[in-house]
Amino acid sequence: MPYWVSYPEQIRLAGATPVYIYLEFEKELKIDTEELKRVIHPEKTKAIILNTPHNPTGGVLSRGELEKIAAIVEDLPILVISDEIYEEFIYEVPHVSFASLGENLYRKTLTVNGVSKTYGMTGWRIGYAGGPEEIIQAMIRLQSHSTSCASSISQMAALAALNLHKQEVKKRIEEFSYRRKLVKEGLKKIRGIKVNKPLGAFYIFPDFTNFLGTSYGKRQIKNSLDLANYLLDEAGVAVVPGSAFGLEGYLRISYAVAIDQIKEGLEKIKKALDKLRS
């Protein structure tokens, strides 16, 4: 925890039971490999989900960190589902695909991606996966009896996007890098917020626990949902409570908006938080 909201439900839909690893702020909200070893059951564990760059934290697993995970799972009969939908949204460090770490890992990794994030095509509903043939064939059979296939219009649009010159994507990522810096530095100036260092995606996931237990008039802030609703009502700023991702006390803030909106949003957040009293 935290996790993208659909993971636990997708696991339950498959008839399995989700097992969580808690990410700690002091450890940069990254996977503790000792904890991973502890939760893996030699007979019950069928798969693990990796998400790098990570939603909601913006965290990125380095090659060294991925290699430590690889050393744990390489000889186990476990599928690694690697969600790399934000692979182009990465700053300061390179993106490393888990399947690239070795032939054995390549054969046991299902890499999930799509065009929604890199090309801003969230409404076109095009995703894709690469992995072991037997799993891909099973996915094709399931899809053929549910949605049949993605619309031909979406497929052609996705093809055009994937053939865009890399320079176009690079230009977009540079814009997001500046927005990330703006949000991170702006939040650090607000007393009481502990700010993580996002290296990917377009989210930041600060710790707002210092504001839990505060109030404004008759309004009590007991949890992250209360705080998110307060910021929406009082400041007109929409954020997502950490509880939606399984981690209380945090808020996910997206910087996939215009620079002027980011600056205005930071000012409004500060003014609203300044009104809260212990």
Automatic annotation (TrEMBL):
Co-factor(s): pyridoxal 5'-phosphate
Gene Ontology BP terms: amino acid metabolic process
CDD domains membership: AAT_like
Cross-referenced InterPro entries: Aminotransferase_I/II_large (IPR004839), AspAT/PAT-like (IPR050596), NHTrfase_class1_PyrdxlP-BS (IPR004838), PyrdxlP-dep_Trfase (IPR015424), PyrdxlP-dep_Trfase_major (IPR015421), PyrdxlP-dep_Trfase_small (IPR015422)
Known EC number: 2.6.1.-
Pfam families in the record: Aminotran_1_2
GO molecular function, one term: pyridoxal phosphate binding
Enzyme class, first EC level, given as a word: transferase
All residue ranges annotated as the Aminotransferase class I/classII large domain in the record: 2-269
Keyword field contains Disulfide bond: no
Family: Belongs to the class-I pyridoxal-phosphate-dependent aminotransferase family.
Protein's recorded name: Aminotransferase
Organism listed in the record: Aerophobetes bacterium
